[in-house]
Amino acid sequence: MRLWDLPGARRFIDATCDSLRGGSSVAICFPGAVPEGFDDALLATLGNALEVRRLTATVTPLEDLSRRYARHPSHVNSVSDLCDDPDFRGLLVRLDNVNEGNWPAWRDFLGRYAQTAYSDDAGHQFRQADHRFRSMPITLEERRSIAALGGRVTGLKFRG
């Protein structure tokens, strides 16, 4: 039996997919390495409608995301511009190598992203359901920072 077939792990995948389908930006935090088969289980539950894009976290989130995923990276000067870029919509991005050196930049970016993407008065041509993030792994302190920003944090703990 695979890990993601177990009832608790299955509920975790289902809850994550429900949040993504509902248009939430989701930060998934694993202590250490991503458990084997996670991406496959997530995509199978989502109906393989999305592809997991991977990005190695650095200290320049906006620049890295726009250079890698925006149709017109030279036109992206703000989070608002990135949200308006047609090629950025609907992405499921997995951040790898999040660490204490680059986390502050990502924490700031995700806060600005959440404000922009979910602002009632935002003048953007996108739907909230089109923006999805998944970032891992980060520490308990970092999870609390995301929660303090008003973000939704889903975590999974393994017992050794």
Write the layout of secondary structure elements.
Elements: H1 7-21, E1 27-29, H2 38-45, E2 52-56, H3 61-69, H4 79-84, E3 91-96, H5 103-117, E4 131-135, H6 140-148, E5 153-155
In short:
By secondary structure, the protein is an alpha/beta fold. 39% of the residues lie in helices and 14% in strands.
Proportion in helices: 25-40%
CA-atom Rg in angstroms: 15 Å
Strand order of the largest sheet: 2-3-4
Counting helices, strands and paired strands, the structural category is: alpha/beta
Strand tally, please?
5
Shape: globular
Write the element-wise H/E pattern from the N-terminal end onward.
HEHEHHEHEHE
**Beta-strand residue percentage:** 5-15%
**Poorly predicted residue ranges:** 121-138, 149-160
Distance between the termini: 18 Å
Mean pLDDT across residues = 74
Query: Major sheet, described briefly?
Result: 3 strands, parallel
* Annotation field: number of helices: 6
